[in-house]
Every structure is written in structure tokens, then in C-alpha cells.
Amino acid sequence: MRLKEFLKDRLLFILWNALIAAFSAVLFFVVDAKVFFVLFVPCLYILGCAAVLAVEFIRKNSYYKKLYYNLDELDRKCLLSEIIEEPNFYEGKMLYDILKTSNKAMNDEIAGHSRSSAEYREYIEMWVHEVKTPIAGAKLIGENNGNDALLEALERIDKYVEQALFYSRSNTVEKDFIIRKTDLKEMVAATLRKNAKHIIGSKVNIELTDIDGMVYTDAKWVDFILWQLLDNAIKYESKNIKIYSEQNQNNITLFICDDGIGIQASELGRIFDKGFTGENGRRYAKSTGIGLYLCKKLCLKLGLNITVRSTQNEGTTFEIVFPKSEMHGI
To answer: Is 53 domain-assigned?
Structure first.
């Protein structure tokens, strides 16, 4: 609170009391009072009014100054009403009650949305599990009839259904992961075995070299991340994919390099944004802009770091940094 603005806000009070003081001086002069009364009484009245304004300014300035300080210190500004102290002046008490009421209404609304979101997520998870049964049945029919085109289409559907499941759980990863000491090479190999049919059908050559070391992570979630990156490489015309690792003092970096069409330099900073498909995504209709977004989000949840380097028409390299210690701040 600034003194100038405070006085401006109290301008009517100041003018009115100045008018009263002037009227008193004139009245004393008219009744032929002594000069002492003509000057002393109005001045005493003005000093009294000034003292009242000074006390009011000091009290309010101290409160609002502290309020602004607390607001600046808070990371989540909406929590201000939770730490605000009730003031000892009427206007402040009104503001205090308004903030408390507003905060309660906001919390009630957020709780309602949270419940709706949780119910929707539960429905999606249930739907995913239910729909996998007819997909598995259709795959069996396709295998019995030797229909490779049908099997490939069903495999793609199954992957998108799985993506929907991981997307629905991405905000609550911490409730569904188990951090274990895991062999990095075995984890990569498991992903390749799981998707061997698609890899063979795509006629892409995958080379594994120097993948060694134990890392602390959740293999199920990492399997999803690895396949998203490999599937992207295959989708964008890669013929050769090289996967290797590099040992560091506190972590292991896994490199996934392809020789596909690459990514424009101007788009590299946005490829992890939700829904971003870029020029390549517009050329390839199957792109949704969700896969890499989920990879980034899940890596953050798992305490991993993912980065990308790419040269257009030459290829792309993704790097995932895994911690060697279980104390990695998830």
C-alpha cells in the first residue's frame, strides 16, 4: 500500500475535515474569540484527524505488505487463503471472509472435477481390459486363417488401445510402478521380443551393441516408452536402428539411433508437446502427437531424462538417462 494512493482514497475524508477546521476558525473569529482559539482548536482538530489517518495507514499497510509477501513466496498462489491471517480492521475482515468463501467454492469444484476424472479414468481402464478380449479373439481367427493383413491391423489397434491405457494412467504413475534393479539389456531385448512380428514385417534391421549395466526403474513403463520410440523410427522410414548404451558415474544413457527422415530443426523443441505432429506428422496420417508426449511425461514421473537430436533426411537419436541408484528422486 502506497501512502499517496491511500491519501487519494481518503481524499473526501480529508477535504471534509479540512472544511470543518476552516469553518471552526471562521466561527471563532466571528464571535471575537481570542487568536489562540482561532488557531489552536482547528489545528488540534487537523492533527487529530491526521493521527487517525496515520494509525489506519500503518495498520493496513503492515497487513497488506505481509499479504503481498506471502503471495510472492507461494508457488501455488491459490493457497493464499489457507495461510492468510484474519485482520483487525473491518474492510480486511470482509476481504478475509470473501477469500475464504471463494477458496471453499474453488476446492469443492476441484474435488468434483477430480472425482469425475477418476471415474472417467476407471472407465477407460475397464474398457481397455474389456476390449482386449475381442481383439485377442480376432487375432486368433486371423492366425487360423493365415490373414496377415488382418493380424497387422489388429496389432495396430491393440497398440493404440494400450496407448489409451497408459495415457489414462499417466497422471497417477506413482500408484502403479515398482522401482526395481533391472538389467538394461534384458529390458530392451524383452521389448524387441514382444514386438518381433511387427519389426520383422517392417523389414527394419536393429543392431544391439554395448548395452550393459543395471538400472533402477519400472520395466513395464519403460517397455512402453521404448516401443513408442522404436515404432516412431519404423513409421518414419528407418531401415536401420542402432541401440547402445554409455556408462557414466551415476547413470547409464541409452541411445536409440535411426536413419529415418529426421526432424526439422525448428520442430525439435516441440516434439514432446501434446498433440504436436509437425511436418512429418502431416505427411504420415497415422501420427497422433500423443506417443512422444507420453514418453516425456512418463520419463519425468519415473525420474528419467529423455532428449533428442536429429538431422533432417539423415536420422534421429533419442537418449534416455537411467539412474544407477534407487535414490533418484521420484
So the answer is: yes
